[in-house]
Each structure stands twice: as structure tokens, then as C-alpha cells.
Design the sequence.
């Protein structure tokens, strides 16, 4: 089946296989078989490339049978796979088939291209999702998009609701970041990109889990992963939720370390040094003694975020999410019960605000956000100063549709 | 049709049958393919879950394609290859092929073509499309353990029954039962069979209510005796000497008289399965089972039949049990299985909580209920400012 261009001969006739199809018959069969459960991707028409997922490109596409129905198609990259259909894609599919929730991206179906001589009788596969107009990174990089406090609360409430749901179903996302948080034009938030997600279990006594700690985009990676923990759990996503929450005000990722070491330093500068005092058990993590860790740093979460966040409840919740010790970090349920969500202004719908923006905003299509980290406290601008001058908004809207 | 269960008449009119392969021959092919997956998987130390998942893929695949188009042993390899990845116990394709080659005659292995690995890769895509990417499959094993926990009786005897039922479940993979009944139903039937053969009558069980006539009423509604016996027969037929020895090569002689498929149940309606209370939702990673090695002495003894059906000779024709695979679990409740070492995103040892219907039969648009949230926690320190009264919970 490989050498499709070579002159093809019928498969060797075996004494016992006279009834088995020869190769050419089989190719024809594969080409013509109408898989009842797996539609052809040609039922959608690609409109634009909107992103690059963990294992392939993402396109916006329109259903041919309905010009109003848009989807996102994520191509399953298989070209360099020695072991067939990637196990990461299989995981993502299994997890997405399990998770059905308003705040989790919805997998509609999996489509294929037709197998032909041209592709050596190997289909390409696409995961087809409901289309979401924006991602949070794209929205935050556009200065014209302004979130009120109530709207920020709504974003965070939906995000935590999604996390609460997936964690209740024993799934870790493991790639929380603003670009993986989608928002529809109606203001519904969806957690997306489960390409790194996995199921987790609560570790039994004496039976620690051994997960890879090489997950989560560096800037959103929690200290336990950076210190080599392999028995982690939902708190890794909660750290990401904290980073994203802060970003709702700072408009750019708060800790943009270029290396793992640097990331830990940035974390210590914000959250204080990782010591057994504030984090019992940290000393037993693999890299605790192998890495040079900043000593004597004081915790300054509220102090440094206050100029941006202002709302004291917001500051308090951030403080609870950006806890060094994963055991002390708020879980999604506790966070949802925080006063931040139950005080005026109450969370309010995003639809009206988003209605002013008729163009999609995706990180992939936006110019790189200014690498303006959360500045160190003596650099933090005064209350009235605008944090992080926004990127130019020319240049990217034209590239959107 | 996202439903993976078939009536008997559908099982007679398969793509292979329409392609000129007799039902008996097809059943033999299925049995050989399944047995081959079991043998290959056992030899590679794959757990029962992975093996069973591979076999279910295999049976589903041939509800859409003919054995003439896709020779069984390479399909079997492909199913095991995919199941390994899905169950988080991946094996390299070339290693599977190597083991397959060692288990097959040269002639049978020749159906793998000139480049077996490439053949498997191409076939994998066809397999995935055929099975609708329904990757997560449930098996009867977990139900056996669940049921056993509730039954009252002498512990050692109960253990023996579970072990016997476990072996029956292993062997049931060689039948098309997984295309006919949900794993809960198969587990009930084969537990029932093991009880019968051990002369163990279950008279009481935990959770019994006056409405229950038999212990399984607690778990599955409307299971009638005819259905149970039909399922048991299908497994016991495997041990019947009339069945063709699997050594015969393909295609087989077409004239072997075979016991015909039993008449369709009077009550052809499938029992409605109660929402399984311990169904694991897409349990993304299943525990890798350390093969159980203490089961060799508990192979079911040739029983004296006291059930209504006739029972042809048992052990002589029984396929040997691969010790790594078919040995029953060592104890009830299931042991906490050790997690495999090493990185590639290993395994977790406990299925997620039950909140979902079996994943292979999702009702359309079924949204699993949100777990109920715990009541408000005690509050941490609150930032300055008195919290305004909390008037209502906004809609979430």
C-alpha cells in the first residue's frame, strides 16, 4: 500500500487467500467505502486559519449546507508520527467526548478527507468544534475591548465553572492560558485545547502518581511543576486560573519568564520564596535542592496587583489562587464561593460589550503582545497610570474576517 | 447509528456474509481473531482491559467490513495497537508485529503484506473511522467485582465463583456477545453461570429489597431466564467439540455442520439497563493490571451440569488460558493496582466518579449533570469593607 506509484501487481496469491482482495481491489474499496460514522471534511469549507493547536492547525470553516453555521476544524497532524494516530489526539478525543458542559468547548464530530491514491489512501482527520468568535488572549490584546469589573467577574466565574466541571470529572487541563480560553460572541466562555489534558487520580498512600511535569505553557506553570512535582493535581490548573485572572487587568501575562529558572524567580518575587515554612513538603520535590531558588523574598501578591486590580475582593481571590503551596491554593469550588463573585457589581453578561466588536479576536491573529511583565513594585505605575500600553490595533484587524 | 448492539438477525447478515462467507466461517474468524488478540496481548504483558478493548474494536469493525476485504490477523494487530494507546498502555507497532509473527504460521503472516507496519498504519485510519472514534469501551470485569461485593455467602466459594466468571468473561470475547449486550448484562449472566456450575446458590445479598427476585435485579432490570441462558450458551458453545479447531486455515471448508444460532429470544426486547452506578465515565486511563499469577489452580472444573441446556465436553477442547491474561483476579475487592513507572503520561488507578452513562451508548445530547457543589465554605480572611448582603445566587 505504500509504494503507490510503482506498477502494481496483484497481491501474491496464497494458496489460502484466493478469496482475499488484491491490493488494487482493496484500494478501490477503501476509496469508495462510505463510512457511516465519519463524514467527509468537504462538508465544511475552510474560511481562514485561526490558530495552531498542540497537535495541528486550526481553521475556521463554514458548513456547506448552511452558510450561517461556522465551526472550528482542528487538523490532526500525523505526518511525523511513527506510531500512527497520535496518542495525544486520542486522549483529547476521549476527554472531549466525555466533557459536555456550557463552559467547555463542544466537539461536534470528527471528519476525514477521502482516502485516495493522492494521499496514499490515508485520510487526514479533523476535530470539528462549535465556532467561538474570540479567545481571551486576543480580546486582552485589543485596547478597544474594555472589561468592566462585572464583566471580569463573569469571565472568571465561567472559567472557574468550567474548571470545576472538568476537575469533578477527574480531568486536568494542564494547559491553562488566555489563548485557550474561548469566548463566543454571546459572551459564553469555553475552555479549549485539551491536547495536554489527562485524567488524574487521587494518589493513594504510598502510591504517588507519576505524571510528566513538562506541561503547561511556561508563563502559566505553577511552582510545583517547576520544582519537578510529578504527583500533582487540579491545583496546577488553579494557578493558571490565577494568572489569567490577573491578566484580566494587566492585559498581558503577569510572569513572562524566558526559562524555567527565571520563571521560578518571577514567581518568588511575586509570591515569596518557596520555603517549607509557607509550603510544607516543598523540600521533598525533586528540583528543590537542585535549583538555585531566591531566598528571603516576601510575598507581595496583593501589594503588587492592587494598582491594577483595585477591587479588594479581586485582590483577595488572586491571593488565594496564586498560593505557592498547591494544598493551600483555592480549588474551583471554593473560588466560586469567594465574595468576589457575590458582591456588587455582580457578574454581568458579556454579550453587550462584545456586540460592539464585530470582528473575531484570536491571539494567533493578533500581533505579539508587548512583553510587559507585571512590573516590579517600584515600577508599578501609579493608580491612574495605564498598565501596559496596548499593542497597536492596526495590522491585525485586517487579518481577521 | 451510534449504537453498538445488534439483534441476532443483524449478526447473521453481516458484510462478510453478504460477501459469501458463511456465518459459521465468520464466527470462526471472529473467534480466531479474538483469541489472537488475547494471545498477542498476553505475550506483551498487556492488561485485560486493553486486550478486551482491542477485541471489541475487532468485532465492531467486522460489522462494517468483510473478512474477505480485511484479513483477520492484521486487523487484530491493528485493534490491539489502537487499544494499547487508548488504554494508556501503548506498544510499538513493530513490537506487536514481531509478536504476531512469532504466533502465526508463515502463511497466515503473509496476509500482512510486504510492509506490515505500513499496512497497520493505513488500517488504523480505517478502523478509527469505522468505529466512529468511539474509543472508550466498557467491559464486564468491573461489574463482576461490583456484583460480587454484594453477594452473601462463604467467602472462599464466592471468590472461586468470581474467578470462574472472570474466565468466562475472557472467553466471551471470542463470541459476539459484546455486540449483543451491555457489559452489565454479560457480567450478570456469566456470574450466574459460574454460580450454577459451582452449585452456589445466592440466597441473600446486600441491598436486597422485597422487589428483588434475584440478586441481579439490583443491577439490571428485566433480565429473564431465557436471556441469561442464551448468553451462557453462547459462551459454553466455545468449549463444544463441534466447533472447528482454530488450527484450520482460511478460508475454511464451507461444509462443516455447525450448531445453528439459537432461536431469538421470545422477549426480543433488550432489557433496559439501570443507570450503572459505578460506570466509569470515559476513564481515560485504566490501570495497567499486573498479571495475576495465582489463578492457575482455579480454572473451572468440569462441572456436572444441572442446568437445562446440554453441555458437551468441556476441558479437552478449551483453549489454554494464557496465564498472564485469563487468570482471574486474586481477590475481591479488586486490589489497588500499582501504577506503572515512568513518564509517558501514565495511568491513574481509580476510575473517575460515576456521573455518566456508558460512553459507548451516549444518549443524544446527554449532558452529564453537574455534581452538586458543596455548601459554602468557611470564609478566609476578607479584605476590607463589609460584604454587602448576598441576596441571591445568580444563574450559573
Sequence:
Amino acid at each position: 500500500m505504500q509504494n503507490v506509484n510503482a506498477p502494481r501487481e496483484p497481491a501474491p496469491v496464497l494458496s489460502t487467500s484466493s478469496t482475499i482482495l488484491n491490493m488494487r481491489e482493496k484500494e478501490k474499496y477503501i476509496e469508495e467505502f462510505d463510512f457511516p460514522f465519519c463524514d467527509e471534511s468537504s462538508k465544511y469549507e475552510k474560511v481562514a486559519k485561526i490558530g495552531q493547536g498542540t497537535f495541528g492547525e486550526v481553521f475556521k470553516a463554514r458548513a456547506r449546507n448552511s452558510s450561517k453555521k461556522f465551526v472550528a476544524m482542528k487538523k490532526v497532524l500525523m505526518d511525523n508520527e511513527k506510531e500512527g494516530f497520535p496518542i495525544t489526539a486520542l486522549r483529547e478525543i476521549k476527554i472531549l467526548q466525555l466533557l459536555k458542559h456550557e463552559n467547555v468547548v463542544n466537539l461536534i464530530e470528527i471528519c476525514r478527507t477521502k482516502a485516495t491514491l493522492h494521499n496514499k489512501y490515508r485520510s487526514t482527520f479533523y476535530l470539528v468544534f462549535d465556532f467561538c468568535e474570540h479567545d481571551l488572549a486576543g480580546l486582552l490584546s485589543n485596547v478597544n475591548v474594555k472589561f468592566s469589573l462585572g464583566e471580569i467577574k463573569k469571565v472568571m466565574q465561567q472559567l472557574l465553572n468550567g474548571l470545576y466541571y472538568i476537575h469533578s470529572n477527574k480531568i486536568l487541563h494542564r494547559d491553562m492560558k488566555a489563548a485557550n480560553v474561548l469566548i463566543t460572541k454571546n459572551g459564553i466562555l469555553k475552555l479549549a485545547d485539551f491536547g495536554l489534558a489527562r485524567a488524574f487520580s487521587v494518589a493513594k498512600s504510598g502510591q504517588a502518581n507519576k505524571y510528566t511535569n513538562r506541561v503547561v505553557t511556561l508563563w502559566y506553570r505553577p511552582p510545583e511543576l517547576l520544582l519537578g512535582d510529578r504527583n500533582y493535581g487540579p491545583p496546577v490548573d488553579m494557578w493558571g486560573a490565577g494568572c489569567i485572572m490577573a491578566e484580566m487587568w494587566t492585559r498581558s501575562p503577569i510572569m513572562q519568564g524566558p526559562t524555567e529558572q527565571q520563571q521560578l524567580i518571577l514567581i518568588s518575587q511575586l509570591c515569596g520564596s518557596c520555603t517549607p515554612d509557607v509550603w510544607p513538603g516543598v523540600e521533598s520535590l525533586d528540583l528543590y535542592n537542585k535549583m538555585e531558588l531566591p531566598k528571603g523574598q516576601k510575598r507581595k501578591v496583593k501589594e503588587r496587583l492592587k494598582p491594577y486590580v483595585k477591587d479588594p475582593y479581586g485582590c483577595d481571590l488572586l491571593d488565594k489562587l496564586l498560593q505557592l503551596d498547591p494544598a493551600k491554593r483555592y480549588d474551583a469550588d471554593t473560588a466560586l464561593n469567594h465574595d468576589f463573585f457575590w458582591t456588587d457589581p455582580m457578574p454581568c453578561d458579556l454579550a453587550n460589550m462584545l456586540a460592539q466588536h464585530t470582528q473575531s479576536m484570536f491571539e494567533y491573529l493578533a500581533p505579539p503582545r508587548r512583553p510587559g511583565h507585571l512590573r516590579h513594585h517600584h515600577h508599578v505605575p501609579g493608580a491612574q497610570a495605564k498598565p501596559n500600553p496596548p499593542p497597536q490595533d492596526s495590522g491585525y484587524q485586517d487579518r481577521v474576517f | 447509528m451510534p449504537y453498538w448492539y445488534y439483534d441476532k438477525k443483524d449478526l447473521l447478515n453481516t458484510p462478510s456474509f453478504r460477501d459469501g462467507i458463511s456465518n459459521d466461517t465468520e464466527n470462526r474468524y471472529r473467534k480466531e481473531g479474538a483469541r489472537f488478540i488475547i494471545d498477542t496481548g498476553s505475550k506483551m504483558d498487556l492488561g485485560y482491559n486493553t486486550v478486551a478493548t482491542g477485541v471489541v474494536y475487532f468485532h465492531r469493525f467486522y460489522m462494517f467490513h468483510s473478512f474477505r476485504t480485511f484479513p483477520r490477523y492484521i486487523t487484530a494487530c491493528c485493534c490491539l495497537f489502537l487499544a494499547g494507546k487508548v488504554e494508556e498502555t501503548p506498544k510499538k507497532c513493530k513490537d506487536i508485529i514481531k509478536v504476531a509473527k512469532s504466533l502465526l504460521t508463515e502463511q497466515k503472516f503473509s496476509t500482512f503484506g510486504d510492509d506490515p507496519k505500513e499496512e497497520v498504519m493505513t488500517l488504523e485510519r480505517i478502523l478509527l473511522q469505522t468505529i466512529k472514534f468511539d474509543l472508550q469501551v466498557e467491559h464486564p470485569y468491573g461489574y463482576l467485582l461490583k456484583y460480587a461485593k454484594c453477594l452473601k455467602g462463604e467467602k472462599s466459594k464466592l471468590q472461586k465463583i468470581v474467578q470462574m466468571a472472570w474466565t468466562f468473561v475472557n472467553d466471551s470475547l471470542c463470541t459476539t456477545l459484546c455486540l449483543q449486550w451491555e457489559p452489565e448484562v454479560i457480567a450478570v449472566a456469566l456470574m450466574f453461570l459460574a454460580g450454577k456450575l459451582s452449585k452456589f446458590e445466592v440466597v441473600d445479598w446486600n441491598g436486597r429489597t422485597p422487589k428483588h427476585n434475584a440478586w441481579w435485579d439490583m443491577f439490571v432490570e428485566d433480565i429473564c431466564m431465557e436471556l441469561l441462558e442464551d448468553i451462557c450458551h453462547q459462551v459454553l458453545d466455545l468449549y463444544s467439540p463441534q466447533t472447528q479447531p482454530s488450527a484450520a486455515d482460511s478460508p475454511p471448508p464451507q461444509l462443516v455442520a455447525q450448531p445453528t444460532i439459537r432461536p431469538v429470544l421470545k422477549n426480543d426486547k433488550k432489557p433496559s439497563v439501570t443507570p450503572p452506578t459505578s460506570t466509569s465515565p470515559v476513564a481515560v486511563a485504566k490501570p495497567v493490571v499486573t498479571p495475576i499469577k495465582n489463578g492457575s489452580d482455579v480454572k473451572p472444573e468440569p462441572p456436572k451440569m444441572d442446568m437445562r441446556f446440554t453441555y458437551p465436553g468441556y476441558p479437552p477442547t478449551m483453549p489454554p488460558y494464557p496465564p498472564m491474561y485469563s487468570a482471574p483476579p486474586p481477590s475481591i475487592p479488586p486490589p489497588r493496582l500499582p501504577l506503572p513507572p515512568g513518564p509517558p503520561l501514565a495511568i491513574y488507578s481509580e476510575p473517575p466518579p460515576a456521573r455518566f452513562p456508558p460512553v459507548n451508548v451516549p444518549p443524544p445530547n446527554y449532558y452529564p449533570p453537574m455534581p452538586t457543589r458543596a455548601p459554602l465554605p468557611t470564609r478566609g480572611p476578607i479584605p476590607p469593607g463589609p460584604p454587602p448582603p448576598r441576596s441571591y445566587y445568580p444563574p450559573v
